[in-house]
Design a protein that fits this description.
The complex is a heterotrimer. By secondary structure, chain A is mainly α. Chain A contains eight helices and no strands. In chain A, 67% of the residues lie in helices and 0% in strands. In chain A, helix 5 packs antiparallel against helix 6 and helix 7 packs antiparallel against helix 8. Chain B is 60% helix and 0% strand. Chain B is an all-alpha fold. By secondary structure, chain C is mainly α. A three-stranded antiparallel β-sheet of chain C has the order 3-4-5. In chain C, strands 1-2 form a two-stranded antiparallel ribbon. Chain C starts with 5 loop residues before the first helix and ends with a helix. The chains are: A mainly alpha, B mainly alpha, C mainly alpha. At the A-B interface, helix 1, helix 2, helix 3, helix 4 and helix 8 of A face helix 1, helix 2 and helix 3 of B.
């Protein structure tokens, strides 16, 4: 009964959303996006306009975005903190295929991730995308070797310093360009379509890529880890697969 | 309605995804399925935002071809060649936020399951009134 | 000045590094964390002075090098600076409160989350970009989701998950709205979007705004989508909730303020309705709570609703932003303080709060301050905010909204003071388990309490002008006494007495105490009554030690403020301070907490009625007491009705009398004389300076239909009559006097209602005389209770030999009260009867005369049962009262006798006073005789002489003619006609009035009490049903979110 009522209410929401469809048709870009398209290349030097927006015009959003990820990783760690007295059990090892394949693919995948974020200002992709690829590589490793432990110390340093570096770059913009996260004037904008162009954008995207990669990896590690813990700790007979 | 434009198609798909996701949240009792439903909603929203920037016949806002530089005096000419980049930037941010929320939700589910031994939403209603 | 972008950038940078600092050890991490908060708070605070005095312009901050709308901009003006400072201070105090509470698992981990929550709030407050606002909203939300997992309680997990579910729904709605707003306006900047949004097609805008509102409503915890937030308050660590209140909630609210610029005006009624439903409904449902933490959740939701209600009004300029700001600051300070204190009490139910903070310094004072502040009482900022809001609404003629607002505020009284009642209740069985607030727990409450007090006092001066020095001196002495409350009673009361005397001399020199003016007369009464109470307090005893003397000084200062008031605001501010200070004192009685909370709820109702009446006047353009006389038409009718009802409730007139017996009898014994003698007269003062001014100035009101003045007089007479009947059946000496006091005030109401020179003379004469004789009786009984330890009359007896002075006091008191010659009671009654006769109100006259006769029945018992008869064995060692109390009684006896022998000492100034009011004389004085305008004559002095002569003759006659008196032992049964105790039930005085009960039983059934109980039960049942909508099921909560969308679609302005 409640479900039918809920769905009826949902139908109203759907009807509202559908009523908006006519207003969502293709239109000419407004003044703000026209500015980005027309002047983005001159003002930021990166040919990927989305990146220019993400890192410079709306760079403050991106800093917030990095914070969101940082916060949710810290939050997940906080929520899944180990209860005292919980024992860990050895998980069932994965198959030979997975193990070998993961080791083989790990390095190329990380490399690919780095490629994506380093070229974020030129080609589709950027720090978040590259970081996600790196994290997928780590996930593969974790799945292959379920007792695998990430070098937490190293990753922690990398994560913290990358984040701090981002804020520091923002301060450089404030000191030189007069505005937090400013690009203009901090570094030369370089030549069109070159790797070393677009001022601080590649630097920021590299830092973001490192940060996102390490953060997502840590997140996966935390969750895999807690899954192991709770498989045994929960008293309801649902064993975590240990034979 | 103004015929079946590509935008309409994208938007309709987006709305369908959102409604499916919300329906899962409203009807399914399993916590994991509810989280899954919210992920679906997220995807729908992302598609919706991207669809609002869509423009048939125009390409991605990456000015990596010499044709964009052909006539530096009419910068505005570029505007007719590529789609609006802003929704794409927004989607990127929205995706990351969605990931963060989903991760945290799943962490909660893990902890709740460990504590209460159930994944039923009806079982986590001790606080009320 | 430092760029405020650092408020976001620095905590983020530090936050990213905090895990590394953590490796250096926990103290390092906490120190870095604290230093970061201090730095950001200081950066924001440095901007404050310039922004307040206008010498600094609000700053627009660019990011990425681009100004709006190309880049994201932030703004830092006065509201932003205030909110950031508040958020920073809350975060600092929360760090102090939470750090010691971290357990082994969370240690060092929550700090980062706290810092990021703060950063999210800063961003939310400053940003001027719609999508950026969404990002910071998510940072704040995710921070909330994460940090509520603090602590071991797994109900926090449950609450957190539900909160995430509905938060996800909110994000969905918001993103849809934001995406379409971008599509429709081509911008995301809140700098230019409000100007563009109106160019969008109306059909699209209606739906987009609907989603925006639904999303914000969830974030703002409005009804019906506040369920998860309530669970969060219920389940999460209170210290965490304090942080969220001071930082995140305010940030969200300010974010709403910013996006509200996008709403077309057609949406404003919807916003106001949702806000007010949340305020009134939230407070209503909170009244059914038995878990204080959840109650605070309802309260937060309600307060937020009030601010949401104000948003459209501030936008249209109907309400000044400053008023909303004061309410917000007040809520932040008070609610955070209450939450930090709640964190000290581990249990969640009301029972766990029994006697909380009894030991340890400051906890209870801070809790009381927080509750006073949050219920909007002066001098805290919330009072001034609420007053400004209500006056603005009155100017706009929005009387329905005022009613809803005041109703919600009254509900707030009910649950907050019930909570405090539990705290005040002592239960010795719980002493061992009682937690003590640590230094760090009190840091935040003390900081915020002090902040609220200072801000409130600044506003007091701003709104009501600098009070006269005497008021300041007395209030200052009171505050100091509260701080040194552990000193002996002698010192406390002596200091208070010196303060009062100094103030009296000061005021006397300025001529403010002239008894021929109303304010002068009442100031004299207040200072005189206050001095007598403090004098008696030198002897120690109930109500003379601890924080009572300090509170008493504050009470006296508020009464002076009230008596000196010229504007309505001054009067009301004094009135409300009087209410809470007397409430706190009553709660100090041994069984005082419960009657005190009932007293507070009725006083709250009275206060809101008075406020409503004032608003009727202010809506008609009158802001001073004198201006009330110029009201006409419906404004006059409303002002008269509401003010009159308020004063009647506060004076415990029949129907509202149920609060009085408990409050009088359970208040500290030495305070009761003041309660009866002075405070019960304040509503009478209100009648004279406010309500009756309307009637006097508005003859249409008097001549139209049923004479309202006659109605008022009838209420007074019925009160006098009914209370007398009730007094007859009391076994408890103080309850007896309590009913008697309420009844006596009824006579005064009758006198005032006559609205003639003679009627007012009678009323004012009785005001003074009642202070003297009822004070005397209460002091005498206080002494008896102090010595015998009981208030039940039949447990006493034969005290005449042990306490002769108390006997004489009681004897004189009851003779004065009963109105028989030769004491001044007769003079008073004579004046009143003459006035009634002249007015032609015969029904009232009969009622009053009958009541006055019946009074003998109870008065007789007081003297007979307590002082005559057989001395109880356990009272053989009883001594006379201590010297200060004896001196007090002697002084009052002298006063009573003086009035009896030569009432002109009072009647002449009263005559001048009345002449000033009515431009007509009530009496002429012929030698020692009084002559009324109708020619009736009475000579009190001659009568006294006559009576003395008669008595002397009779005594001589007895001595000469009668048998010589024979001494009989007190245990001689034949003498007293009673059985020796036990059993006490057989005592002849037990159930003494049984025969009368048979006759009057149907008259004195506790119908009124039953009525109020039925109101409470019936209302409670309905509310209980209502709050069950919060079923606890997360899915249902999400359904409410979808329901909200549907309701807005069907009822909103879009369709």
């Amino acid at each position: 009964m409640k479900q039918i009522f809920s769905l009826a209410l949902l139908a109203i929401t759907g009807w509202l959303l559908w009523s908006l469809v006519p207003y969502g048709q293709a239109t000419e870009p407004g003044p703000v996006s026209s500015h980005y398209i027309a002047h983005g290349l001159q003002e930021n030097g990166g040919s990927n306009l989305v990146t220019s927006i993400v890192v410079n015009y709306r760079g403050f959003d991106t800093l917030g975005e990095v914070t969101v990820l940082f916060l949710s990783v810290a939050g997940a760690g906080f929520v899944l903190r180990r209860r005292s007295g919980q024992r860990r059990v050895a998980p069932r090892p994965s198959s030979e295929f997975v193990q070998t394949g993961a080791r083989m693919l790990f390095a190329p995948m990380v490399l690919f991730g780095v490629y994506i974020f380093v070229h974020g200002h030129l080609t589709p992709g950027g720090g978040f995308q590259g970081g996600a690829v790196i994290a997928s590589a780590v996930l593969m490793l974790l799945l292959a070797d379920r007792d695998h432990h990430l070098p937490h110390g190293f990753m922690g340093w990398l994560e913290s310093l990358a984040g701090f570096g981002y804020v520091l770059t923002g301060f450089l913009g404030l000191a030189i360009g007069g505005s937090f996260l400013a690009n203009k004037g901090v570094l030369p904008l370089g030549q069109w379509n070159r790797l070393f162009s677009a001022g601080v954008i590649p630097i920021i995207y590299t830092l973001v890529g490192l940060k996102v990669g390490t953060e997502l990896s840590t997140l996966l590690d935390v969750m895999v880890d807690s899954g192991r813990d709770h498989g045994e700790a929960d008293a309801h007979g649902q064993k975590g697969g240990a034979a | 309605m103004n015929g079946l434009t590509p935008s309409t198609l994208y938007l309709a798909t987006a709305i369908l995804l959102i409604l499916m996701g919300l329906a899962a949240v409203l009807v399914k009792r399993n916590l994991l399925k509810m989280v899954l439903g919210l992920s679906l909603v997220d995807t729908g929203i992302h598609l919706l935002i991207a669809a609002l920037g869509a423009h048939p016949g125009r390409t991605a806002p990456i000015l990596d071809d010499a044709k964009y530089l052909a006539d530096p005096h009419t910068l505005l000419a570029r505007v007719n060649l590529v789609v609006d980049p802003v929704p794409q930037a927004l989607v990127l941010t929205a995706i990351v936020i969605g990931v963060g929320v989903t991760a945290l939700m799943l962490s909660y589910v893990v902890r709740l399951y460990a504590r209460r031994g159930s994944l039923d939403i009806g079982e986590i209603g001790r606080l009320k009134w | 000045m430092v760029n405020p972008i650092l408020l976001v950038a620095v905590p983020l940078g530090v936050g990213f590094l905090l895990p590394l600092f953590g490796k250096l050890g926990r103290p390092v991490a906490v120190a870095v964390h604290g230093a970061t908060i201090l730095f950001t708070t200081a950066v924001a605070a440095l901007w404050l002075p310039g922004l307040i005095d206008g010498s600094t312009a609000p700053l627009d901050i660019t990011t990425g090098g681009w100004s709006a709308p190309i880049g994201i901009t932030l703004r830092f003006g006065l509201p932003e600076a205030v909110l950031c400072v508040l958020a920073g201070l809350t975060a600092l105090a929360s760090l102090a409160a939470l750090t010691p509470r971290e357990d082994a698992e969370t240690v060092g981990r929550s700090g980062l989350l706290q810092l990021l929550v703060l950063t999210g709030a800063f961003g939310l407050i400053m940003t001027r970009d719609l999508f950026n606002l969404y990002v910071f909203l998510e940072i704040s939300s995710i921070g909330t989701y994460a940090i509520v997992a603090f602590g071991r309680d797994d109900s926090a997990l449950e609450a957190g998950f539900k909160y995430m579910l509905i938060g996800a729904a909110a994000s969905t709605f918001l993103l849809v709205a934001i995406a379409y707003l971008y599509k429709l306006t081509g911008t995301l900047s809140l700098v230019n979007m409000p100007g563009l949004v109106h160019t969008a097609p109306a059909g699209a805008l209606a739906i987009v705004m609907l989603f925006l509102l639904a999303g914000m409503a969830i974030e703002l915890k409005l009804i019906p989508v506040n369920g998860p937030a309530l669970d969060l308050y219920d389940g999460a660590e209170p210290g965490v909730m304090a942080l969220l209140t001071g930082a995140t909630v305010n940030g969200v609210l300010f974010a709403f303020w910013k996006v509200s610029a996008l709403f077309p005006q057609a949406w404003y009624p919807v916003l106001m309705t949702m806000g007010m439903i949340t305020f009134t409904g939230g407070n209503l449902m909170a009244t059914m709570q038995d878990r204080p933490r959840r109650m605070l959740g309802y309260s937060s939701s309600a307060q937020l609703g009030l601010l949401v209600f104000l948003v459209p009004l501030v936008r249209t300029g109907a309400v000044p932003m400053l008023a909303a700001g004061l309410l917000l600051i007040n809520h932040t300070l008070a609610k955070s303080a209450l939450l930090w204190l709640a964190g000290v009490i581990p249990g969640k139910t009301l029972d766990d709060w029994t006697g909380a903070f009894r030991s340890g310094f400051g906890g209870r004072v801070l809790l009381a301050a927080g509750i006073l502040a949050i219920t909007g009482l002066p001098p805290f900022p919330g009072f001034w905010g609420k007053w400004t809001v209500v006056t603005s609404l009155a100017h706009a003629g929005m009387n329905g909204w005022i009613t809803a607002l005041l109703l919600g505020s009254l509900f707030e009284f009910i649950y907050y003071y019930r909570w405090y009642q539990r705290v005040q209740t002592e239960d010795d069985s719980r002493t061992a388990a009682r937690p003590v607030a640590g230094l760090w727990d009190l840091f935040g409450p003390a900081l915020f309490g002090l902040g609220g007090l200072v801000l409130g006092l600044v506003w007091t001066v701003r709104m009501t002008g600098t009070p006269t020095e005497a008021v300041i001196v007395i209030a200052a002495v009171g505050l100091v006494l509260l701080l040194v409350k552990n000193l002996p009673a002698l010192v406390l009361n002596l200091a208070g007495l010196l303060g009062v005397v100094a103030a009296a001399l000061w005021l006397g020199r300025t001529g403010a105490l002239a008894p021929d003016t109303l304010p002068g007369l009442f100031q004299l009464l207040i200072l005189g009554g206050g001095a007598l109470v403090l004098l008696a307090g030198l002897s120690g005893g109930s109500g003379a030690s601890g924080s009572v003397p300090g509170l008493f000084m504050i009470l006296v200062s508020s009464l002076l403020m009230l008596a000196r008031a010229e504007t309505l605001l001054q009067f009301f501010a004094g009135w409300e301070i009087m209410t809470w200070s007397s409430y706190l004192i009553i709660g100090h009685g041994r069984r005082g907490p419960k009657p005190a909370s009932i007293y507070m709820v009725f006083s709250g109702a009275a206060g809101f009625l008075v406020l409503g009446g004032m608003m009727a006047a202010i809506g008609a353009g009158q802001t001073t007491l004198a201006g009330l006389g110029m009201l006409t038409g419906s404004a006059a009718v409303w002002a008269w009705t509401l003010l009159g009802l308020g004063f009647l409730v506060k004076s415990a007139a029949v129907g509202a009398h149920v609060w009085a017996p408990g409050a009088y009898s359970e208040s500290p014994d030495l305070f009761t004389p003041f309660l009866s003698g002075v405070i019960s007269k304040i509503p009478m003062f209100g009648f004279m300076v406010a309500a009756l001014r309307i009637a006097a100035g508005n003859l249409a009101l008097v001549t139209d239909g049923l004479d309202p003045l006659w109605l008022l007089g009838a209420v007074g007479a019925v009160t006098a009559f009914g209370m007398t009947l009730l007094a007859v059946f009391q076994e408890d000496a103080k309850k007896l006097l309590a009913y008697s006091s309420v009844g006596q005030v009824g006579y005064i109401v009758v006198g005032l209602a006559i609205l003639s020179p003679l009627g007012w003379t009678a009323a004012l004469f009785h005001v003074v005389h009642h202070l003297l004789f009822k004070g005397l009786l209460f002091f005498a009984i206080a002494g008896v209770i102090m010595r015998t330890g009981t208030r039940t009359m039949y447990e006493m007896g034969g005290l005449i030999k042990k306490m002769p002075l108390s006997f004489i006091s009681t004897l004189i008191g009851i003779i004065a009260l009963s109105g028989v010659p030769p004491l001044a009671g007769f003079t008073g009654k004579w004046l009143l009867y003459q006035a009634l006769l002249a007015k032609g109100w015969y029904f009232i006259l009969v009622l009053v005369m009958f009541a006055s006769v019946v009074a003998f029945v109870y008065l007789f018992r007081l003297i007979h049962t307590v002082f005559l008869g057989q001395l109880k064995p356990q009272h053989r060692t009883v001594r006379e009262v201590p010297l200060p109390l004896a001196v007090t009684q002697v002084l009052m006896i002298i006063g009573t006798m003086a009035l009896a022998v030569y009432p002109q000492v009072l009647l002449r100034p009263l005559d001048a006073l009345v002449r000033g009011q009515f431009q007509a004389a009530a009496l002429t004085f012929d030698g020692t005789a009084l002559v009324t305008a109708t020619g009736a004559t009475f000579n009190p002095t001659h009568m006294m002489v006559l009576v003395v002569i008669l008595f002397v003759l009779m005594a001589l006659g007895l001595l000469v003619l009668g048998p010589w008196p024979r001494k009989v032992g007190q245990l001689d049964i034949g003498f007293a006609g009673e059985l020796p105790p036990p059993p006490q039930e057989l005592h002849y005085a037990a159930n003494f009035a049984q025969p009368y009960r048979r006759a009057w039983a149907h008259l004195v059934q506790p119908r009124v009490m039953r009525f109020w109980n039925a109101v409470a039960d019936g209302g409670g049942g309905a509310v209980d049903l209502l709050r069950r909508m919060y079923s606890g099921n997360g899915q249902t909560y999400v359904m409410y979110a979808v329901l909200l969308v549907a309701v807005l679609a069907l009822l909103g302005p879009g369709r």
